Amino acid sequence: MYYSIRHLTKFLYSSAISESVMETRMHPRSDTNQRCLTFHLSVSPRCRVFSYRDHLANNIHHFDIPGKHGQLVIIAESLVELEPPPHVPSFLAPDAWAALDAMVEQGDHWEMLLPSEFAKPTPALEELARQLDLRRRDDPLQVLHELNDSVYTWFDYASKSTHVDSPIDEAIESRKGVCQDFAHIMTALVRKLRIPCRYVSGYLYHSTDNRDRSVQDATHAWVEALLPHLGWVGFDPTNRLVAADRHIRTAIGRDYADVPPTRGIFRGNASSDLTVAVRVTPSELPPALDQDLPIPEDWSMLVEKAQQLPPPSPAAQLLSLQMQQEQQQQ
Questions:
Q1: Running along the chain, 330 residues long, what does each successive block of 10 average in pLDDT?
Q2: Which of 12, 43, 98, 298 could make an SS bond with 273 (beta carbons 3.0 to 4.6 A apart)?
Q3: What CATH number does the domain containing 280 carry?
Q4: Residues 250, 293: one domain?
Q5: Could you tell me which of 244, 155, 147, 231 has the C-alpha nearest to residue 204?
Q6: Are residues 102 and 165 in the same domain?
Q7: What is the pTM of this model?
């Protein structure tokens, strides 16, 4: 299956700012069953965009806009080929826990085992683990299937019920959240079992045949756990799925703090308003690689030219840099 992806991000400032510095993680990965055939990042105001890969092979783009501007628009366009991953069984062999421990001992997986900024033990998480009867039993794959089901059942999906930097206790105590919360909670629980687990940022294709809880106009998040004989296996607790040929991976890390789609700062005396729109379009045959992806009609108001706002006062230009808003994964 081929997927054309358009991801628009717009920052609108209450008054003109004097500089924006931004990095993005929107370039789909090329590994395992996924290949990114084309990627293009458009930025307005125009600027030079640089890129590099981090130690986990995530593609990161970054740029600096030093001139005065009233808005910042970023459009990422990708064409991805996705093959169905190998079948994931319901359980593994009786000696799977021992095989897993041997893999961990021989490999370098420590950063996916240790607590991280958004996926760390808390009293609320410990109580949740007790109520879910989370422990090493049966085999690791069977426990992960059951945990994926339990998180889906235990929590209600409620768009915008938490914030991008909400700790896991907020979702645990209210028993509701979004995919970012569920991925963090499951990551922390899986690591309690001494199974390496990582956070995955990306996109999920939604169709009328699927009963997904997550929304289709936002980025998505799920987890991957390391298992003997299978390698990294994806679990989507938001939708009670094993990640397959609808899950498009852009970045992996310890948690959301490692892989936000955008992260930046700006200089100026202004507040900012963030708008995000995502479109994922499937096709059985590959589209022409040199084909320009048209901007959807309902996005036209989002990509209009920047307003001619008055320049900031001298005092505003001396203000320290402020963090840009980050987009929560729904």
A1: 96 96 98 95 96 97 96 97 93 95 93 97 97 96 98 96 95 97 98 98 91 89 97 97 96 98 95 94 80 60 48 46 85
A2: 12
A3: 2.60.40.2250
A4: no
A5: 244
A6: yes
A7: 0.91
Q: Are strands 156-157 and 176-177 parallel, antiparallel or unpaired?
A: parallel
Tell me the Ramachandran region of residue 272: left when phi exceeds 0, alpha when psi lies from -120 to 50, beta otherwise: beta
Q: Is residue 330 part of a domain?
A: no
Contact 205/145 with Cβ under 8 angstroms? no
How many domains does the chain divide into?
A: 2
Q: Which helix (H) or strand (E) holds 224?
A: strand 220-227
User: Which residues are paired to 198 by β-bridges?
Assistant: 224
Separation in Å, CA 228 to CA 152, 252, 317: 25, 20, 56
Helices (H), the chain: 96-106, 123-131, 140-154, 168-174, 179-192, 314-317
27, 73: one domain: yes
Q: Is the Cβ–Cβ distance between 277 and 256 less than 8 Å?
A: no
d(CA 177, CA 278): 20
